[in-house]
Every structure is written in C-alpha cells, then in structure tokens.
Write the structure tokens for this entry.
Amino acid sequence: MSIIHEKSPKHCAEKQTTKILNKSKKKLLFYSLMFFLSILCLILLLRFILHPSNPHFSLTQVDINHLNITSPSPFLNSSIHLTLLSTNPNKRTGIYYDGFLLHASYNSHVITPDTSIPPFFQDHQQPNLLSASLLGNHHHVDPSLAAGKLPLGFTATGSLSLIAKTLAMAQGVGMFTVPQTIGSVLCCRCGILMQPNAANMCANCLRSEIDITEGLQKHVIIIFCPECNSFLQPPRTWIKAELESKELLTFCVKRLKNLNTVRMVHAEFIWTEPHSKRIKIKLKVQKEVLHGAILEQAYTVEYVVQDQLCESCARVQANPDQWVAAVQLRQHVPHRRTFFYLEQLILKHDAAKDAIRITQMDQGIDFFFGKRSHGVKFVEFVGKVAPTRSRTDKQLVSQDSKSNTYHYKYTFSVEISPICREDLICLPPKLSVSLGNLGPLVICTKVTNTIALLDPRTLRQCFLDAEQYWRSSFKALLSSRQLTEYMIIDMEEVRSEENVGGSRYVLADAHVARVSDLGKNDRHFIVRTHLGHLLSCGDYALGYDLYSANSNDFELDKYRGVIPDVILIKKSYEEKRQQRQRKSRSWKLKSLNMEVEDGTRGREHEEKMNTEYEHFLRDLEENPDLRFNLSLYRNKEYEPSMASVADGDDVPSVPLEELLADLDLADEESEEDEMVE
Amino acid sequence: MATRLQYENNCEIGVFSKLTNAYCLVAIGGSENFYSTFEAELADVIPVVKTSIAGTRIIGRMCAGNKKGLLLPHNTTDQELQHLRNSLPDSVVVQRIEERLSALGNCISCNDHVALTHPDLDKETEELIADVLGVEVFRQTVAGNILVGSYCTFSNIGGLVHPHTSIEDLDELSTLLQVPLVAGTVNRGSDVIAAGLTVNDWTAFCGSDTTATELSVIESVFKLREAKPSALVDEMRKSLIDTYV
C-alpha cells in the first residue's frame, strides 16, 4: 500500500503562488547581477586597454620680473611669468584640461592670486606648453620672510578628463592612417589644373584628341510603309511603330552596325519635323581609351526615311476586294435559324476575325479571306459546330513559271445538313434498322457536329455524326414551321423520369386536343409523349399534326406500323406571351457585319426575317442549353415592367447571371468586363 | 634646359640612359643620334659612357647611382664592370651588388644626399647603398607603388613624382628628401616618371612626346631655367643696384 499524502487545495494554491514569486524574484536578481557584472567587465576592459595615466608636467621656464618686499609693513609684490610643459603619455587617450588655476606660494602662503588657464584638449602623446603670468600685489606676508632665498612653489588646481579617441579605438591595434587628399596636376596638353586621371589629360583635351565615334554609322536609310505605318527590317519583317516611340528607338538602334565596339549608355530622339522624312537620334557611348581612362561621348545619327509599300499593302492597293479563299456556307432549308445561331457562335469564338468580307446570300452566308489558311481554319471551325460536308476548289489567278510561283483563288463549299432541332424525321428503313430498330419517326433534339435523334415513344436516343448522315442523307418530314398548338386535357405518367443523353424526359400518355378544334368539334387524341416532365393539365404544347398532315414521303408511305396522330415537341408559351406584351428583353445579342444582297426582296422578306429572328430569340429564352455556347449581353435600355412581378407562371426568361456585361469603351463610365457565369 | 629626344623612336629616355652630376651612361643604339645628343650637352662637363648592363640596353633601369657611386646588379658581366670602372672618374665607386631585385633603377631612386628604396630590399643592400652612394636611405612607396625608382625622380634641387600622389604623401616625401616635389606627368600623360625623364642638377632629358606644359613643370621644379646665363646677370643686377636715383 502506498501512502497517499493529501493536501488541501488551499494549501497547494498557497504553495504554488509563493513558488511563482520566488521564481520571478530570482530571475530579476539574476539579470540585475549579470548587468552589473557586465558593466564592471567593460570598465575593467577599458582600463586595461587604454591604460590611462596622468599627464607629466615639467617646468620649462620661469621669468621673475618683479619680486620685492616693501617695508615697513611687509607687503610682497611679485610678477612672475611661468611656462609649463605637459605631456600626455597615453597612447590612445586624449586628455581634456578643464581650466586650471595657478598660483605661487611660499611656505604654503599664497602670494599671488589665482590665474586661470583656458581649457584645452591634448591629443595622445602630444606635448603642450602652458604659460601664465602671475601678478601679486601687496600681499601681506610674514615678517620673518625678510631676505635671503625664497623657495617658491607653484600649485595648479584643475580637473582633467580622459577621452579615448574613437578613431584609435575603432582601428584597434592597427595602423593609424592619414586621410588622403588627392592633389592636382596640370593637364599635359593645355596646362589647366585638374584632378589626376588615368590619361592625365583634362576631359576637353582627351575629347579633342580621341574621337571614339570614329567608324560608327552616322547616316542610315530606313524604309517605311505609309499605309500601315511600319518600318522594314530586312529581309522581310515589317515592324509597326509610331514616331518617337520605344519600338522605333529599339528598331533604329538595331539598324546601326558596329555598335558593339563601344558601350551605349543612353539613346533618345531629337525632334524632327514629321514631314521632313528624317529621324535623329542622340546616342551616348563610352569607350576605354589610352591608359584605361573611359571616355564618354555623345553623337547624333540621322536616319533618312524612304517610303515603300509593304507587300500586303501593295496587294490591297492593287485590288481592294482581293480575296484568296472564299467559304460558302449553305443550308437548304427554308428558314435561317441555323445561321442566326451560327452567327452568334462565330461571334463568341471570333472565328471570322480574319474575314475580309462577309456576305449574306440566299440560303447561306459567304465568307472571304485573305489567306487560304484562314479559310481552312474557318471551315474546320464550322465542321466542329455543325454537321457539314465540304469540297474545295481552286482557280489559277496568276503564275510566274520562272520562279515557280502560282497564285490561286480557293473556294470552299460547305453544306450544312438540313436537319434542324425540333424536326420530325422519318428514318429510311435501312438506317432505322442499323440504329437498332429506332422507330421510323424520330425527333431531332439537338444538332451540334452530331445529330441527336430521339424516339418519342420509346425514349431512345441515338447520335449521327456528319459522315453517317451524309451517307444516308434523309430530309426532315416536318419542320418547326409546321407546328400546331395543342391543349393538354389530361396527362398520365407511364414511366418515371429518365435521363436520356443528358436531358430528362418522362414518358407519359397525354390526352390532347388541337386548339383550333377547341370549341368547334370534339376531336381529341391520346398520344404517347416524352414531355411528361414539362406538361400538365391545362398547358399548351406545340406538336406535329400527323393526323391531318399530307406528307409525300416514300418512307412514311412504306411504313407498315402505326403512325401516331400527334407528336408533341415542346411547351407553348404563346398565350402568356400575348398577355405579357413585353416589348424589350433584358438581354441582347451582337451581330456580324454582313453585307446583305437585297434589292429584289422587298418588305415581305424583311418581315419574314424579323419574325424568324424573334422566334430564334424565343428559342434562346426557352432553352438554356442552347444559350450555353453563346454570349448574351445585358441590355441597358431594359426596364423591368411592373406587370412582370404579378405574373404567377412566368414566361421563361434569361436569368441575370447568364448575361455578360458588355464592354463599353465610352468615355462616361467604364464597365467591368467580367464573366458573371 | 630640358632637351627632348628619342631612343630609336621610343620616348622612354630614362630606360636607356642614366644621368648623374658626375657622369652619364648611355645605351648602345643602332644610330648614334642618342649618344650625340647627350654628348652635345654634356661632353665638356662630365664623361658620357656608352655601355650595356647584363647584355641589355635598358641600363637606366638596371643600375642606380649618384656622383659618389654606381650600383650594378648581380648579372652585370665582368667586362661591363671593367669597362665602367675604366671609363668613370676615380671618385665614383662602382660596385656590383648581390640583390634578388636586380632592376636597381626601378627599386632605388636617389640624389647625392638621400635615396628612396623599394620596401622589400635586403638589409645588406640598404647598407651598401648608404655606403657606396653616401646617402641616407628611406624605404618608401610613391602613390601606393612600391617601385619608387620608376615613379619618382629627383635631383639635388627638386623632384617629380607620380601624378596620383596625395598631398599628404607629397608633404611627407618632401620632408624626407628635403627638396621641393611636384606631382606631374611626362611623355604626354605617362605616369612612369623615371622612365620618361632623366635629370641632374643643371640639365634634363625627356621623351619627345612630352608636351610643353609638362616641360614647363619639369623646368620649374628642377630649376633648369635659371641655369641660363642671363638669369645670373639679372640676379646680380638686383643686388648691385640699391636705389633708383
């Protein structure tokens, strides 16, 4: 059993506090002791090093001019001139004499009053002579002092202080260096007084004798293209530079040969009239001359500017519409939706920045480029965003058979597949079978460089890329122009939500009736639709009316199976749009500057284009994945109307986070160009 | 009066000649022009001796001497030694010394009373110098250069030192040598003074590249202008005429 000592907490607390106190006291004591010890050590050290000792005094000369005693009452008059030599024996300390008082005395009787000697400083091992005149008048003296020898004593009282020379201390035990002042010599040529240098000649003589700019270029010709403001750097580079700019300075200095023999220190422009076709640069160079002296000299270089058109400007000048490659984009469909979308894509990716000209044609757009490579790049870009097939041709423009150079015009014909989003397609049986018996009627859901086809009855999706499509080039059965509006009477889910190729669909049975039929007759249809997630009872939807459509499609005629009456495509917001009457949108799009070849079309065509654009914009609003690839900009003139807040079921609109703030380089305010998304 | 000349198109006169108050040594050159210039100035006053030292022509830098003696390096041949002993007057002691630093002209700079030497010279050599030349020897540097024989040259009247010498150094040297000193250049800004200039109490010879300014400095510090006869007459006239009546 071990003994346990129990102590009360109070006891422990007490003990602890005392312990702490002791500790701090001890620390304090320790530190103070250390401090004093260190000071003591320092003093001892100083003493030891400096060895301060008192000055030695010796009497060098005493002149007694006057010394007599008057009788009867014994008064002593004296006039004594005294010279003392005091030497400071210390090697490293100086002595400061803080004022002395001298007086002469006889047998401890003071016979002259105190004469003061002014304070002075005595350097180490330096002798100093002190002289003083002591005058005593009518001092009362002892009568015993009658005649005979007069032992005189001189007493000096004063204070000394030893001053360690900091300079000596700093050098320790080393040599004592004398401060060196450089003298002056005569220049060997002109004889003026100057500081000695490596050549021992004054700067003017040196400069007049030696010219370090000998052999350097002072006159250069440079070639300038006035069209594009660029200077030629042979053999073929043209450097764009403004007058008196940094780039021009570097270019001009680079054109100077032999500048590596000297060191260039400074270069700057001297102003010349721009029309004079002269550029002047002042250069400062340094070079080592005889005996190692470095001489700096400034000199001017004059550049003569000669005008000459660079090749690209010359070509442009010769024929301003000169293009080398043309890309003709075509899509043989009656609408222009694809081209609106493509236009936005091109703007976003800056694919047409090298285009010289863009022309809007019937069923397509033409792009003209200055180089073949730009054309090829553009065709490749289009091939990545749409299913296309292209062919290229070239036409000889000119040739130089001696130097084997040929100039051609290249044309790229690019055809975009006529299948668009929301198109109803009847697949040819061979293709349908090869795709795994995809029901012949399919909807095209998405067109990028592949075509996504969705069977609305089985919710199966498949993708066709451009090659596959063009092998069996089928056309759309019905396109979005032929959509009719339906009202949903009833919805019944068949299957739960499925994720088909990235989008959610719900297979449902819908009981629909055409809006045009409502109120007139009682025709209604029960259809299987994939839009179960979007639609509910009372909604309006757009779909293809196969019941009353008259299609001349061979494939459809040959099809033996059941053809549905209605295929719903999307939800309709038509009613709500008409209620809203909102004219402006909170966002806007930019557009390419295209040359439109109109003239014969007239106003009808223009109206048709406007409605199509409006549909396109609506499409953008309804489909977030469509606008994913595009840049939408905030419309500054937009003011949200009051009515919008009151609406319950809103028309889909673009949320603010997806809009880009348009970079406005106007002078009032500068917008921050931030990607908000 | 200072004379400008060249030795075989080279302006370093002090390398190829040695001039003292009692004799003048001259190197053997291709043409006799060098020798004849010295002869024209000095022939009737002091002997001008043509010689080589250790088979070389750089005699001015190899030997050191004043009117009392001449010191030669250890590699002087016996024939040269004998030739010098024969040619020089008897009052001049010719002595060959064993010294590691054999370019005595670069290491020792002297006049008839004082000599400055290279700080690394042997103790025996120093004693020999004091003995043979009859001078007081000081080990010194000139403007931080240890080759005092090259960078300064002085006669009994004045002296010229390296142009970069500081004022304190100048004062110090001046007190040691007891002659006025000036910092200057020779041969168009060359700072190797003793190589470009050789001087004694009444005449000096310097390289032909020496500019007029340098020449005037040399003439003023070595007091060569007053050696002209007219100067003496002017001095006398001043003392003879007490007052103008």
User: Anything to note?
Assistant: Chain B has a mean pLDDT of 90. Chain B touches chain A at residues 163-170, 183-185, 188-191, 211-214, 216-217 (CB under 8 Å).
